[in-house]
Amino acid sequence: MVRFDSNILLEENQNQNSKTFISALVTIKYLHVAGAKVILISSWSTKTNSNLDSLDSVSAYISSLLKLKVLPMKLCHEYELTRLEESQETHTPSIYLLENLSQFKEDIANNSRFSQELSSGVDIFINDAFFQSHKTLASTVGVTSFCYASVAGFQFEEGLSQLKKAFETKENPYIAMVGGGNLIEKAAAINHLVSRSNGLIFVGNIAFQIMHALGFSVPNKYLEVGAFKEAIQIIKSANSRNIPIFFPKDFWCMNDQFKNPKLVSGHCIPEGWTPFGLGPNSLEEITTLLSKSKKIVWIGPVKFGLSNQDSYGTSILAKVIGKLSEENCDVTVIGNMACKALMEESMVSSNFNIIENASVVWEFLKGRKLPGLMALDRGYPYSIDWHTIYADPDRPLFVDIGSGNGMFLFGMATKRKDMNFLGLEMNGKLVKRCLETCHLSGLKNGYFIETNATSTFGLIVSCYPGKLVFASIQCPNPDFNRPEHRWKMVQRSLIEAILHLLSYDGKVFLQSDIEGVALRMKEEFLKYGNGKFIIDHQEEWLKENPFGVKSDWEKHVLDNGSPMYRLMLSKSLRE
């Protein structure tokens, strides 16, 4: 199932030569060629493309883009996918388009039941809508809890690459030009820009908040409630780094009683006059500042008060920035209005980085995690130098999945010097603490990696020089308020990776203080072990810890007089 971005794939005047558009098509074609049955999902409206007013028209349009047949498919009233109309005899890969998700409020609400039914029958979820990743939707976040694997598509990867490129600061001077308003919502993001750039230019309503904080007279109707404190902080931060802040020195203004516009000083806008554009002095000063730059980020429209975007000022700035890009200035333009103006006024060169959706960028600059990104499986892209980590990397390996504070692994590494021990843990702070302990103690047969083992176990352990002889999962954290996440650690992908890499006669140790969790782990390993995992004991649960080393949680549970539910599995030699 591919969640595509309708603003990219369906937009009426989309630049079909852009990397973003091409990568969106490549994702679908790649899957089709690979033999996958593909279900496309998204939400759209006639605002995106006035010609696309029905499921049939959208499927026909995507068919024309792909040069492949795309079949429309509806959800029934129970939110279940209708049967795919293919005979069982044919194995020809097909592409389906699910009906418009904007009709279902459950998508915006990230409804668990809707997510589960939406992903019914789906093995792999591919998020190819990076510029929607700041939203928590059932179609981008919720479905990941119910799919075998959740990965990024080529458009998602391209969007993420654009975002990273936009705020790399290799080139100086680096100037950020910020338009639009709503300073309170954007204050954290602007403070980030202050900390990284060599100067800021404000060309929207935020400029009025900065001017007010500097003591200039600004009509009350242009001031945002509560923005004064945030503006003061931005000014202080800029002063501490000794970087300039520019705001307009003059404006073109209009008045209902006069036909002709009037040029007024930015320091004193007369009562009854409404600014609608940048004045000549302002444009000259901005042009001079930009001309000295090696990197420019322009985010937000040149817009003041309640007026429309300043078309003249925007046009001048677009031409200036377009010319600078031809002189090898690194330019990023963010937001629909700014991007549209730039593409109308200048030829977009390879030095341009165009990001039309500003919302995801603002969230990124605020330092917030993007839900659509965080919901995907994490890869482990780093090469591991096992010879540096372990004194002897050929020793048998014991992997503890979800190693927590490392108490169990440290105890085992001290007791069994003939083995190497590896802890895989998602909590970065715990991993950092464990690695510091390894360093201080001089431990050379124990190590910890921050990762999501559910999706990276195979990538990490497959490159280990020795044999994997033991894997353990102890007390995975059940969240009973979110049942769809309750068993997320022990998924088919993890079990199959362990089965594939575990040596014959290798063992898997499972335990939990909650019987239901232990039972579910047992059932999942036996189900996805393809008959290769056998229980290593007669009794239902092991009474004693077979290693004589307890994890911190196990010790806590036993000290409180509660039981532990333990299970040992062996990998069978039989085929």
TrEMBL record:
Q: What cofactor is needed?
A: Mg(2+)
PROSITE patterns, alphabetically?
Answer: SAM_MT_TRMB
Keywords, A to Z, come to: ATP-binding, Kinase, Magnesium, Methyltransferase, Nucleotide-binding, S-adenosyl-L-methionine, Transferase, tRNA processing
Q: Name one GO biological process term.
A: gluconeogenesis
Q: Name one GO cellular component term.
A: cytosol
InterPro entries the record matches:
Phosphoglycerate_kinase, Phosphoglycerate_kinase_N, Phosphoglycerate_kinase_sf, SAM-dependent_MTases_sf, tRNA_(Gua-N-7)_MeTrfase_Trmb
Quickly give the catalysed reaction: guanosine(46) in tRNA + S-adenosyl-L-methionine = N(7)-methylguanosine(46) in tRNA + S-adenosyl-L-homocysteine; (2R)-3-phosphoglycerate + ATP = (2R)-3-phospho-glyceroyl phosphate + ADP
Q: What's the Enzyme Commission number for this chain?
A: 2.7.2.3
GO MF terms here are:
ADP binding; ATP binding; phosphoglycerate kinase activity; tRNA (guanine(46)-N7)-methyltransferase activity
Family recorded in the similarity comment = Belongs to the phosphoglycerate kinase family.
Subunit structure as annotated in this protein's UniProt entry:
Monomer.
- This protein is called Phosphoglycerate kinase
Gene source species: Lactuca virosa
Write the lineage as a comma-separated list.
Answer: Eukaryota, Viridiplantae, Streptophyta, Embryophyta, Tracheophyta
